Design the sequence.
């Protein structure tokens, strides 16, 4: 079992920045491929970013490239999503998830085994 807890979401003006955190339980966090997804009202959950186990290989959806940065600190069992130049269309509930099986297919939500409860990000214009 892996428990994930997101934090850092809040209301922010367009152009602003936020850093989301994802704290994981367990001692093998460094073994897990992990990702961030988001779901806006009335829309499907979509891939945002993912990162390899060591943190050396990030992946991003096109709409956030150059604005968002994913990172992880395995010593702290925590992953981060730094979000800059936020836009109203970034408004969503953001979820972190881990792939313990090892599929390492960043955009496939069904490959992720454990999910957090989500944190709300609201960007006003």
Sequence:
């Amino acid at each position: 079992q892996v428990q994930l807890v997101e934090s850092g979401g809040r209301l922010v003006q367009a152009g602003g920045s936020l850093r989301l955190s994802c704290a994981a339980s367990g001692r093998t966090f460094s073994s897990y491929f992990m990702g961030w997804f988001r779901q806006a009202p009335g829309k499907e959950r979509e891939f945002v970013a993912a990162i390899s186990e060591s943190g050396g290989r990030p992946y991003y959806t096109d709409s956030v490239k150059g604005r968002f940065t994913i990172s992880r600190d395995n010593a702290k069992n925590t992953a981060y999503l730094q979000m800059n130049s936020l836009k109203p269309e970034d408004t969503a509930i953001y979820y972190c998830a881990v792939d313990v099986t090892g599929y390492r297919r960043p955009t496939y939500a069904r490959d992720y085994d454990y999910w957090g409860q989500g944190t709300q990000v609201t960007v006003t214009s």
